Amino acid sequence: MNKIKGIWNDGGCKPEKRIRGIRIGSYSKGQGEAMRWRIVNTLSGKKKIETFPSRMAAVQRYDEIASLVEQEGKNFQLTPTERAAIVAWRAHRQARLMASKNSITLDKAIHQVIEWEERQDEARPTVSEMFLKFASHKDKEAKGRNSERAMENTVRELREIETMIALLGQNARISVFDDEVALKGIEERLHDSIVGRKGGYPSKTTIARYRRHLNVFLNWLVKRGVIIRNPSNLLPDIQEDEPPREVYSVEELNRILFTAQKALPSAVPWLALGAFCGIRPRELSRLTWEDIDRQGNLVKVHHGKSKTGRARFVPLPDVCEKWLEWANNAGIPSSGYIVPGDTPQRREGAQRRVINALKAMGVEWKHDALRHSFASYACAMYEDYPRVSAWLGNSVSVMEKHYRQARRKDEAEAWFNVYPRKEGE
Fold first, then answer.
1. What pTM, to 2 d.p., does this model score?
2. What are the angstrom distances between the C-alpha of 31 and each of 1, 6, 28, 53, 195?
3. Sheet strand arrangement including 292-293
4. For residue range 115-130, what is the model confidence (pLDDT) as tens digits?
């Protein structure tokens, strides 16, 4: 195989930025063999080699790596407190070494603390375990009152608490209540999980009742020393009856997909499936390429991967198929998970990193707006709310109340006509 030849000065297309520690160039296995392109990444201290069939695919991958490196550099800025801690550690270590005493390095000290905290988390009970104890306590308390009304209220309270904590997942540790972040996520998902009395999203009063019941459980945990404080005290006031559901314009979708096409090609498949099939972000992290029937133009969201626990089929429109085809031609494998990563946590982390990278490149990211946009434009395109609600895994009442006449049909046609740009455009 011939030695890799750099491409920076050969007059062809090249990456936007040059990153020290990452080489890009062309090579061939021998005379008469086809030219291939390669990226050699030594940033981690170990050599990692990626090979591509086309120059454009290699350049796009290089730009993607460069963007992530640049973003990580911005994230790795020490605060004054962190700098002071490093200075104090250096003085401490130097003093111990001068006194002929052992002193571990900073990286080992940090890893030991991380491992200790993880062991502490594992030693703590799960939310489900503590809820069973709480439910037993409340049941005995209600029976002691010898009142049918007290039992009815307790059953309802426990049912609503169980609905909320189920949104955390079956194996969630009690450490999720160390701050208010988990509670915010529960309330956001609760809006999509229950339907109000008049259809559509639950009212402000309903959400307040759910929060009040969960607050009883959290106070019980505090009294028993299971958690230090009740995180619900840190939550903001409950929003109005229906939280704003933001929708992208066609121009904004262009910006997202074409930016990803240029700098983040590995993200193109799940971004396209979100925009043109309306699949939830967490469901996307569970999907594999094998879930996509490209001959039958369908995406199957299996019951184990669906948020609702119910399987559903979603049509694969031509525009989405063309984006998937572009991604495969750019070197993205057509097997394995749609979102890169070997564990659910790493795949969800990959999605967050892509979102942060898009924001760093000037793209406005709106929470869950790809799905909301698909729902709005699909309703305008087909005017068949039961069918669209089935694709989304939502109730018809939510669809009719929230997405009716949200967008015009000509806007919908434009949305489903955002195709990949050809090389050079």
1. 0.50
2. 9, 18, 7, 17, 67
3. 292-293, 298-301, 312-315
4. 777 776 666 788 889 9
